[in-house]
Amino acid sequence: MNKVIKVGAAQISPKFFDKQQTLEKTCQYIEEGGKLGLDLLVFPEVYFCGYPFWRGAVSVRQSTELAAQMIRTAIRWDGEEAQCLAEVARRAKVNCVIGCNELSDRPGSLTIYNSLIVISRDGKILGRHRKLMPTHSERVYWGVGDASDIRVFDLDIGKLGASICYEHHMTLLRAALAIKGEEIHCALWPGWWTVNKHLGAKSAKVEPGTCDIESAMRQHAIENQVFVVSSSWFLRPEDIPGELKDIMKYNLAIGGSCIINPAGLIIEGPVFEREMIVYTEIDLSERELAKAYLDGIGHYSRPDLLTLNVRDEAWSPTGPQKLGNTGLDARSTQQLRDLLERYNLTPVELEAILERHPGISE
């Protein structure tokens, strides 16, 4: 594995609530990442394609109607849009992490999740991560992740971990990613802000030392001895639908993407008020220097005093399900589709069979 690689954060303005135009633009920038020689390109939180920047500014009725619009413009983690992105990533030879509003794949459900999908440069969709806990009023719009979302992804550049926004303030999740062996961390954010006295008082301004993103990213890098690629929203005014312009009073999408080394030093960015790919070369051997001084899961840990219990069950309407080692990936999805076609079954019929005969799935 090459120790020196090139990583980037796609600080790109999506076409808000427009799946097709956002898809086209995303493909364009993945191709641009390929031309830049990037090994990894990270897109922001729910980049595909809309964050509820109207939080706290609309009535319950408006909020419900906007939530329905988010459902209509959400994508499946392994659906048509994701497959298209995977093919472009394959042609461009770029590993990608893309934040999205993800529509539930459970039959009958229309819940959406604040998710990210991981695509390898050989065109495989390796899986998804759902935000474990939407923050504050975000819970109006998104469901919660479960134990299956606490994972790292094996790429040709190393083990990749990823978290979304305030998951970076979840102490035990950071520890879990370290224990699972992350080497490169992807951080997805809705923008950048200034905090005034408490975390609920944010405004889209850049004032040194007033944004918790910077301290969180630098601490994550030090604590887990990893490189961090932090990707933040930038939203151009012309990409906001006319009917939303007056209500998006929580718009924090001013950029702020940056890249941090394992010593917690910002080595590129943050960049504000510009649509661009923020990128740089990193030398993974710097992790050896970090680990020699501070190895949080090795010589600088005390498992005899402190341990972490990570659940190994995912949750469903029929109760907990043991997690296996297969995970969610494009190959297993295709195998399932082939199985359904061979036996002329629908997903609902297969689920009913598994419920009647639980031993089959063990």
Structure description:
- The strands form four sheets. This protein has a six-stranded mixed beta sheet, covered by helices on one side. Strands 6-7-8-11-12-13 form a six-stranded mixed beta sheet, covered by helices on one side. Strands 9-10 form a two-stranded antiparallel ribbon.
- It folds into two domains: 4-293, Nitrilase/N-carbamoyl-D-aminoacid amidohydrolase (4-Layer Sandwich); 313-361, no CATH class.
- It has helices at residues 19-35, 60-72, 80-92, 171-179, 212-224, 286-293, 330-342, 347-356; strands at residues 4-11, 40-42, 95-103, 112-119, 125-130, 153-155, 158-164, 184-189, 194-196, 198-203, 227-232, 255-260, 266-272, 276-283, 313-316, 319-322.
- The protein is 27% helix and 26% strand.
- The mean pLDDT is 91.
- The relative contact order is 0.15.
- Helix 1 (19-35) runs parallel beside helix 3.
- The protein is of the alpha/beta class and 362 residues long.
- It is globular.
Topology of this protein?
Elements: E1 4-11, H1 19-35, E2 40-42, H2 60-72, H3 80-92, E3 95-103, E4 112-119, E5 125-130, E6 153-155, E7 158-164, H4 171-179, E8 184-189, E9 194-196, E10 198-203, H5 212-224, E11 227-232, E12 255-260, E13 266-272, E14 276-283, H6 286-293, E15 313-316, E16 319-322, H7 330-342, H8 347-356
Helix pairs in contact: 1-3
What would the keywords be for this entry?
alpha/beta, Nitrilase/N-carbamoyl-D-aminoacid amidohydrolase, 2 domains
